[in-house]
Automatic annotation (TrEMBL):
Protein name: YVTN family beta-propeller protein
PANTHER family: DIHYDRO-HEME D1 DEHYDROGENASE, PROTEIN NIRF
Species of origin: Tunturiibacter empetritectus
Domain of life: Bacteria
Keyword Transit peptide: no
Gene3D superfamilies with a match to the protein in the record: YVTN repeat-like/Quinoprotein amine dehydrogenase
Keywords: Signal
Signal sequence range: 1-30
Length: 348
């Protein structure tokens, strides 16, 4: 996250969407439309950021400002929390499932926790404002991307120690890894997509994203070699992960901040702050948007669970926005206490 107002939902000023559900006739014959199946009230206060779905344990980890809420996705109930954070952005679960990593942008640490009881095990110093993170399998490393210091901290997962720092050409947003030695990350203030060599710990390409402003969320089709960057200006940039070639630029909803990809159905998703979920058919060369699902204002981050095909997004109800002042020219709407909610989206 480049700054708190970029993603933490208390900064959102988007108008509620008035879109009706849209699903093309051709696509409807092959797939059912997505719909909101459940709403789980989590409660609490404060803004939020990324979500991580763990298909093995059927858990959803939600970065919720000063804590990570952990939800059992079979029941919709909160089963615990990682406490004592200052401004949490995201969570990565280690492959063994026993250890989790939370980026705490307020303390400039990655917090390591035990997934059995959510107790903090250690804190790993990073650059300034660690935000998006990605696990890279071939090197068994965690890459924490630091929005303010514009670099990445490379962490050895086995020792839980930082083993390197990689300078970046601009402010990083969300990353992805192919688990074969390559990491990708959006560079928000340069409108580019960077490729990194995980073993050499260096940048190997900096690809422009023409027509994409402030790329944030990033999804990855590993088998097809395609990256999906969601951008301001209602665009999704589709990029060849081998060459950096621009493949398409479908129009999506406004204010996106996260993306997802369903490899089994070849669908790409964008969760948008205007209160919509955009569904893109990535099996077609034209990358048509086949559905625009109304969600809720502010639901701009998401997680996709490949084991169930469910999509999770979160938001809350907003109160009045205070009048602008010289000191606060862009005031934020208040978040109504205990209104924080998970939306469960599926095709059942």
């Amino acid at each position: 996250m480049p700054n708190t107002s970029r993603r933490v939902v208390s900064s959102l000023l988007f108008a509620a969407s008035t879109l009706v559900p849209f699903f093309t006739t051709a696509s409807a014959t092959a797939q059912k439309p997505f719909q909101i199946e459940q709403r789980w009230t989590i409660g609490g206060t404060g803004g939020w950021d990324y979500l991580t779905a763990d298909p093995t344990t059927h858990r959803l980890y939600i970065a919720h400002l000063t804590r990570v809420d952990v939800v059992d996705t079979t029941t919709g109930k909160v089963i615990g929390a990682v406490e004592g954070l200052t401004r949490c952005h995201g969570v990565v679960i280690a492959p063994d499932g026993k250890t989790g990593f939370a980026s705490d942008g307020g303390s400039n640490n990655v917090v390591v926790f035990d997934t059995s009881n959510f107790a903090t095990l250690t804190k790993i110093p990073t650059g300034t404002n660690p935000d998006g993170m990605a696990y890279e399998g071939s090197t068994n490393t965690l890459w924490a991307f630091n929005g303010t210091s514009k670099n990445a901290t490379v962490i050895d997962v086995a020792s839980r120690k930082a083993i390197g720092t990689v300078a970046l050409p601009g402010r990083p947003e969300f990353p992805q890894s192919d688990d074969q030695g390559t990491v990708f990350v959006n560079i928000e203030d340069k409108n580019t997509l960077v490729r990194l060599d995980a073993k050499a710990q260096k940048v190997t390409a900096d690809w422009p994203l023409p027509g994409c402003d402030s790329p944030s969320g990033l999804a990855f089709d590993k088998e097809g070699g395609r990256l999906f960057s969601v951008c301001d200006g209602k665009k999704m940039a589709v990029t060849d992960s081998h060459t950096g070639k621009s493949l398409a630029m479908p129009t999506i909803g406004d204010g996106p901040d996260a993306a997802g990809y369903d490899a089994s159905k070849k669908l790409a998703f964008s969760s948008n702050g205007d209160g919509t979920l955009s569904v893109v058919d990535a099996s077609k060369a034209t990358y048509p948007v086949i559905q625009t699902l109304p969600t809720m204002k502010g639901a701009r981050t998401m997680a996709f669970d490949p084991s169930t095909g469910k999509i999770y997004t979160v938001t809350a109800k907003f109160g009045a926005t205070p009048p602008a002042t010289a000191a606060t020219p862009r005031p934020r709407p208040s978040i109504l206490p205990d209104s924080f909610t998970v939306l469960v989206i599926g095709q059942d």
